[in-house]
């Protein structure tokens, strides 16, 4: 179903239709004056008709072309009022009085009240003085009512236009208020979710981290960890569990910040990710991570920042699973209208052992693609020249 609202193209067509109608009105008046008696000519009263008709045509055309220019419109309507009133007096058997009536109508519908009244009075005075000068019948003064009717119609049109503008402005303000209300509601919900994550998950992970640290301290203090391989292995598991717990706390805080729209700049987050991989001396599968940034870093929408960061994390994780020991390079490129993150790593030999290759559910890339699409971006993967590449682009 088509929308009942007028589009910009419809408005342009409407304006051109109005201009065509006004031009057709001018041509009709010219034909009427040319066919009435007395005819336009080069001497005496016919010369006056010719000059007045020319002035009326110039004023009418100026009115058509001066849309949006108040001074030009005022001048054009004044010329139309003066020449139209005079034409109405000297060519009583034509439609020339319509020039003065249209001038009054247009003035009443577009100009200030004092200017529109002045233009209507000018037309009336020109009609009255012209009628007295040529000795026309007193009934011609009835044309004054035509001019007055045009002015009143202009005032009515002005009131309608003002009410329509006010209604349109009110509608726009209402839409803005609804948008702001929806945005505020979304922010409130995000804040609530962030608070729940912080209060439940972060506190639980914090307590777990403290318990693991206590267990690590007890195992370290026990002499058995140096002589009993099982105790030494348990100590390493506790250390690894503590590290994973601390990383989980960091990710939880980052998710809370994203929900609260208070994220750090992405290059800083990637640098912290690279540093955490470098410091992870217990993980022999950890890849060497290098980050390169091009362009001027700027703050992005929280969803975009999180999608790009999760892409970097997934790239590092995939490298550890399927290309253990291979370096990972992250290239972050800021342009005027989008941000692109490209992660690359060399592919390993077929004989390279992959102890973590079967871990995970296999939905990492699917989740990243969904994140990118939710942020308005795209994600692509490819293997070229023995190099695996993962690229996500998000508009800004």
Layout of SSEs?
Blueprint: H1 8-35, H2 44-65, H3 70-90, H4 97-110, H5 113-134, H6 143-221, H7 224-227, H8 229-259, H9 266-279, E1 289-294, H10 302-322, E2 328-334, E3 338-346, H11 364-374, E4 378-384, E5 387-395
Parallel strand pairs: 1-2
Antiparallel strand pairs: 2-3, 3-5, 4-5
Helix pairs in contact: 1-2, 2-3, 3-4, 3-5, 4-5, 4-6, 5-6, 6-8, 8-10, 9-10, 10-11
Structural account:
The chain has 396 residues and is an alpha+beta fold. Among the domains are: 8-136, no CATH class; 264-350 and 359-396, 2-Layer Sandwich (Heat Shock Protein 90). It is 67% helix and 10% strand. The chain has helices at residues 8-35, 44-65, 70-90, 97-110, 113-134, 143-221, 224-227, 229-259, 266-279, 302-322, 364-374, and strands spanning 289-294, 328-334, 338-346, 378-384, 387-395. The protein has a five-stranded mixed β-sheet with strand order 1-2-3-5-4. α10 (302-322) links the parallel β1 and β2. α2 runs antiparallel to α3 and α5 packs antiparallel against α6.
């Amino acid at each position: 179903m088509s929308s009942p609202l007028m589009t910009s193209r419809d408005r342009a067509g409407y304006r051109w239709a109005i201009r065509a109608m006004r031009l057709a009105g001018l041509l009709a008046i010219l034909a009427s004056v040319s066919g009435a008696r007395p005819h336009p000519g080069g001497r005496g009263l016919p010369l006056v008709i010719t000059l007045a008709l020319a002035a009326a045509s110039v004023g009418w055309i100026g009115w058509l072309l001066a849309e949006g220019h108040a001074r030009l419109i005022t001048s054009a309507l004044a010329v139309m009022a003066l020449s139209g009133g005079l034409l109405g007096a000297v060519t009583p058997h034509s439609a020339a009085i319509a020039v003065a009536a249209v001038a009054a109508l247009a003035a009443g519908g577009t100009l200030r009240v004092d200017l529109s009244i002045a233009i209507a009075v000018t037309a009336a005075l020109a009609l009255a003085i012209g009628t007295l000068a040529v000795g026309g019948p007193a009934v011609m003064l009835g044309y004054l009512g035509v001019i007055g009717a045009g002015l009143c119609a202009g005032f009515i049109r002005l009131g309608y236009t003002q009410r329509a503008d006010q209604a349109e402005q009110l509608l726009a303000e209402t839409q803005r208020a609804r948008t702001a209300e929806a945005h505020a509601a979304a922010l409130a919900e995000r804040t609530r979710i962030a608070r729940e994550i912080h209060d439940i998950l972060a506190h639980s992970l914090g307590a777990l981290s403290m318990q693991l640290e206590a267990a690590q301290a007890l195992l370290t203090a026990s002499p058995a960890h140096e002589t009993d391989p099982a105790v030494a292995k348990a100590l390493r598991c506790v250390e690894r569990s503590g590290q994973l717990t601390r990383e989980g706390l960091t990710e939880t805080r980052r998710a809370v910040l994203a929900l609260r729209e208070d994220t750090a700049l992405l290059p800083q987050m990637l640098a912290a990710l690279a540093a955490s991989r470098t410091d992870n001396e217990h993980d022999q599968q950890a890849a060497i991570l290098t980050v390169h940034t091009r362009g001027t870093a700027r703050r992005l929408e929280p969803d975009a920042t999180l999608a790009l960061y999760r892409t970097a994390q997934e790239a590092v994780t995939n490298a550890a699973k399927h290309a253990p020991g291979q370096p990972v390079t992250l290239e972050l490129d800021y342009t005027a209208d989008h941000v692109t993150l490209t992660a690359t790593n060399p592919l390993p030999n077929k004989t390279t052992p992959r102890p973590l290759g079967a871990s995970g559910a296999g939905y990492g890339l699917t989740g990243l693609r969904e994140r990118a699409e939710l942020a308005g971006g795209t994600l692509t993967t490819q293997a070229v020249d023995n190099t695996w590449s993962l690229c996500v682009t998000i508009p800004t």
